[in-house]
Amino acid sequence: MNKADIYKLLEDKGIAYEATEHAAVYNMEELAAVELPYPEDNAKNLFVRDDKKQKYYLITIRGHKQVNLKEFKKTHGTRHLSFASADDLKAILKLEPGSVSPLGLLNDEEKLVEFYLDKSFLEGNARIGCHPNDNTATVWLNTEDLVKIIQDHGNNVHTISFQ
After folding, report:
1. pLDDT, tens digit, for every residue of 40-79?
2. Is the whole model's pTM more than 0.70, yes or no?
3. CATH fit for domain 3-160, picks 1.10.10.10, 3.40.50.1110, 3.90.960.10, 3.30.420.10
4. 29 phi and psi, to 5 degrees?
5. I need a surface site. Which of 67, 72, 92, 159 has the fewest CB within 10 A?
6. CA 151, CA 154: separation in Å to the nearest integer?
7. Among 136, 134, 161, 128, CA closest to 15
């Protein structure tokens, strides 16, 4: 699914969203320079794999947080983790580097990727901002709507606390 497909899906499902179009950004530092309406709800996404390339994980946290992969491994009983390659990203989520997003899970035809979402996105206003599978926009939507879309697609969703 590309950006237009994501917008159409959200509209077809009657999911309220707001889109902010902007110049292409490839990391959180570049995104910080973009004027966004809800920067506190922006998501940072890490696409990682185990050392045998058998298990893949998408970890989504608030932009100001960090993920300790060694601690994640210990807590969740995974093998050693490292960032997945651009080739893996393209093959599994059909995305380019810089466009990683929970909405990319809708391109995961084999449902290989386990989704780990920072529980804080479900608190307060429960809003999350993520790319619509294209790094030239950010889509703001209710986090519960995002989780439901991903669960309906068939990927496992885990909500956990990150520091």
Report:
1. 999 999 999 999 999 999 999 998 899 999 999 999 999 9
2. yes
3. 3.90.960.10
4. -65, -45
5. 159
6. 5
7. 128
Q: Distance (Å, rounded) from C-alpha 81 to C-alpha 157?
A: 18
Residues 6+ apart with CB under 8 A from 133: 1, 2, 3, 5, 6, 94, 95, 99, 101, 103, 104, 106, 107
One-letter amino acid of 154: G
Burial bucket for residue 45 (CB in 10 Å: 0-12, 13-18, 19+): buried
Q: pLDDT tens digits, residue range 4-15?
A: 999 999 999 999
44: tokens are 């940072």
Query: Which residue type is seen at 111?
Result: K
d(CA 141, CA 45): 16
Best CA proximity match to 135, nearest among 35, 30, 24: 24
